[in-house]
Amino acid sequence: MPVESETQNAVSVAIQGEPGSYSEEAAQALLGAVIACRYCRTFEEVFQATEQGQVQHSLIPIENSLAGSIYKNYDLLTRYRLRIVREANLLIQHHLIGMPGVKFEQITTVLSHPVALDQCEKFFARFRHLERKSAYDTSGSVKEIIENGMTEYAAIASRGAAEYYHGQILMSGIQDNDENFTRFLLLSTQLEVSDCANKTSVVFSLANAPGSLFKSLSVFALRDIDLTKIESRPIPGRPWEYLFYVDFLGNLGEVRVKNALNHLAEITEFLEVLGCYPAAPPRG
Amino acid sequence: MPVESETQNAVSVAIQGEPGSYSEEAAQALLGAVIACRYCRTFEEVFQATEQGQVQHSLIPIENSLAGSIYKNYDLLTRYRLRIVREANLLIQHHLIGMPGVKFEQITTVLSHPVALDQCEKFFARFRHLERKSAYDTSGSVKEIIENGMTEYAAIASRGAAEYYHGQILMSGIQDNDENFTRFLLLSTQLEVSDCANKTSVVFSLANAPGSLFKSLSVFALRDIDLTKIESRPIPGRPWEYLFYVDFLGNLGEVRVKNALNHLAEITEFLEVLGCYPAAPPRG
Asked: Are the Cβ atoms of B214 and A218 closer than 8 angstroms?
């Protein structure tokens, strides 16, 4: 498998965004500081990088505790055949970052990913003269400002982005809500089930019959297996039918989990195990 | 209640987008051709228009059978105190629309709402030279092209938008998948339960206890009440806790529905009925 990095022994991982992004921070939290990151423009490219053997892992955000699921990535989990091997919850702290030497009073326009802009509503309510501009990436916004010497612009991004591009933090912790966490998933080509894995993710579709969702959840409840998340997404070409993504606490090696999944297979039209991995602490 | 329109007896309704949008088509399907539309830039303004008594109704898209839920509108259903009084499923047919007299060969750039652009992937794969540009609205894109005489641009929008702005349809039915439906909800300040209402929408949060989602769905299954949709959204400030939006078939006047909701109230922390209305035919 070809690995991009110059660094020997570095684990290679594809992420969406630029150096210093929250995804890179999550990758370091999961894989250590010595990683060879491949920076991709889209989530689709992140999935392709591992599927095509260019990197060992892909890392994706799947859910933010304020903004909700990253639905596109749920859809890609079904379209590609990667498996979840780890998860991490990252505390998201947004900072206002400008050119070195610039004063806050000079700033007229704030650049960032739309979700980051939305998470700083109170900041924009306080400083009403600031114009908001959408960008494809938080750390990419810092890069743009620094490289082009944009003295009237600031970006909303992570401390890591400020450090990487030598930007200046003009204001810290400007997010509306401090309980701002993003859950990231580390993906690989193969299912890996370690003994300490205690969380499993599955995706299934149901026969279109009354009570089928209830029956599908009963396979867990009847065996005292806790669900941590349920997400539904449309099945293209089959209006008002859904794929259900369910996370539950349990290891594939446990008898009650095996029984639950056998039982679930009786009820579902389609069923796939997406991964079995150690549950991350809820607050990172 | 002040109504904007000049037309007497016209029902007033707020929608997001410009004249000729899919929302306007849905409003006409539900309320007849004689409506006084208030065209809003954001969904938030659509909710506010009815809540502040400026119009009688708000109309919002809630779900597309290919792209999924319009999550922002689920969140606004909880933030505002409007109630669902009707629903409609609209077949979405996308057309490529340009200036009158323009030939397809002249077009270099295609403008539309990002969801509409995404729903025409096969079209863009066939005509690789065409550049895509995001806009806030489908019919607003037609307006922009016609008003500014942009001969190298075309928009993706409805037939209604082409007619309203006197644009020319260059290519018809360019969506990837013909099974493309959007479900719209008509909102009002008051709950209205007619005898022919057979669908109910509720929103609830659960005590954070094992099996609580299963128990909440059991109140319907135990009474043979069919669920048609379940959606979950994060509760801001309470990481990894969710609001559940559930649609089921039943009228609030039925004894089994009353019992189910009383039972549900035993399990939930928070429970609200969002509306009780006639179910629309699945394919419009």
From this structure: yes
